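Long-time lurker, first post. I've been practising inverse folding by hand and with some scripts of my own, and I keep getting stuck on stretches where the structure tokens seem ambiguous. Below is the full token string for one chain I'm working on. Before anyone asks, I'm not after the true native sequence, just a reasonable design that respects the backbone. If someone could post their per-position residues I'd love to compare against what I wrote down in my notebook.
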């Protein structure tokens, strides 16, 4: 992503040179491009993305927002929060010998399953570091076949999957087509940016009731004492609208709206926006809260039923429930039944355990009230492992 932003002139040469010098001092010279999005000290010293970094770029066709989510298994909750806001995903695979294989055993599969369960249907696979294996077509085909087989089994459709051979470090096939003869002899397809441009925009929930999940809260200047940012999940809003913040049940008003740091009179579903609010005390707002219209508010719940895909064994047990940036302790209190491929209950006695790969209907009780409603996507985790994910019914 750092390479993409650099080649599209979102980041200038001087900034990259400064990162390169700093990275060399730490003995991590190849990390300069990663630092475009990894701004935290710990992220830089460990060489891993920890939180979601947000950036924007434009092509001749459209505007994109990047949510650079972490790949490391310690930071899966942040990855879930990023995937919950995305229209489509770029899954980066390390093609170097041994790395692809270990990734496939570990995070590659979990991340693909998580983005699918977050409702993301379109997946572009950037087969990165292919220069380390001399742009081998055999290696590219082997990776494509193994990942395709797994993704099709995970309910992705073939038409929504694309593979791009590339090198982020050298910039081959990210923004500019590669000039490497070993690659151009067999690959005639699009670059990563061209493939992004070819993605169909997804349909928006414009006519549904207003829902906005808070991704960040900041205290502004004298003009705007309290501001929040987030993605408008459904509906639309305009300056002057009244909003209800849940779970606090507090009312507030939209003082002004910014998109890409420019003031706008209104916003619609799918846009990442900043709202400047009035008439609410900051103690009533936290990250992950939902803003909705007082006339059609989202309800707070302490118990819900969900249709979930089991990643591990599920039984009546303690779980952490994640929805976007919110996570709250709870427990599975009841296994209602196992479902077949069409979502219909399998006849027979009530299951005592749900096995990995099965889809089941479960009842979950929470330790506190959270805003949740039908159609929202949740992830269940236990002891740092994802055990299931699905949709609230």
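-- Answer (accepted) --
I ran through it position by position. Result:
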């Amino acid at each position: 992503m750092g390479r993409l932003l650099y080649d599209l002139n979102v980041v200038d040469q001087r900034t990259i040179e400064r990162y390169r010098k700093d990275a060399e001092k730490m003995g991590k010279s190849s990390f300069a491009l990663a630092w475009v999005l990894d701004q935290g000290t710990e992220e830089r010293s460990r060489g891993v993305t920890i939180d979601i970094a947000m950036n924007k770029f434009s092509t001749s066709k459209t505007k994109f927002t990047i949510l650079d989510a972490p790949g490391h298994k310690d930071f899966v909750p942040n990855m879930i929060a990023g995937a919950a806001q995305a229209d489509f995903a770029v899954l980066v695979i390390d093609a170097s010998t041994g790395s692809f294989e270990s990734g496939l055993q570990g995070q590659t599969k979990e991340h693909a399953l998580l983005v699918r369960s977050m409702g993301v249907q379109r997946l572009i696979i950037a087969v990165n570091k292919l220069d380390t294996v001399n742009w081998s077509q055999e290696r590219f085909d082997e990776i494509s076949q193994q990942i395709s087989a797994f993704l099709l089994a995970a309910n992705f459709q073939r038409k929504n999957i694309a593979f791009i051979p590339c090198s982020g470090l050298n910039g081959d096939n990210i923004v500019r087509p590669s000039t490497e003869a070993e690659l151009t002899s067999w690959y005639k397809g699009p670059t990563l940016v061209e493939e992004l441009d070819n993605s169909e925009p997804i349909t928006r929930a414009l006519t549904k009731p207003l829902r906005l999940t808070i991704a960040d809260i900041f205290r502004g200047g004298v003009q705007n004492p309290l501001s929040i940012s987030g993605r408008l999940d459904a509906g639309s809003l305009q300056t002057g609208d009244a909003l209800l913040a849940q779970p606090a049940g507090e009312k507030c008003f939209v003082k002004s709206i910014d998109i890409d740091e420019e003031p706008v009179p209104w916003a619609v579903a799918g846009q990442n926006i900043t709202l400047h609010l009035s008439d609410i005390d900051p103690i009533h707002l936290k990250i992950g809260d939902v803003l909705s219209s007082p006339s059609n508010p989202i309800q707070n719940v302490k118990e819900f039923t969900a249709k979930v895909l089991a990643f591990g064994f599920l039984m009546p047990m303690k779980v952490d429930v994640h929805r976007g940036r919110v996570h709250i302790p709870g427990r599975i209190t009841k296994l209602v039944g196992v479902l077949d491929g069409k979502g219909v209950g399998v006849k027979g006695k009530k299951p005592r355990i749900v096995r990995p790969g099965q889809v089941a209907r479960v009842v979950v009780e929470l330790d506190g009230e959270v805003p949740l409603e039908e159609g929202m996507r949740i992830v269940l985790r236990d002891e740092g492992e994802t055990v299931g994910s699905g949709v609230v019914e």
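A couple of notes from the structure itself: The two ends are 36 Å apart (CA to CA). Residues 345 and 356 are 17 Å apart (CA to CA). Happy to go over any region you disagree with.
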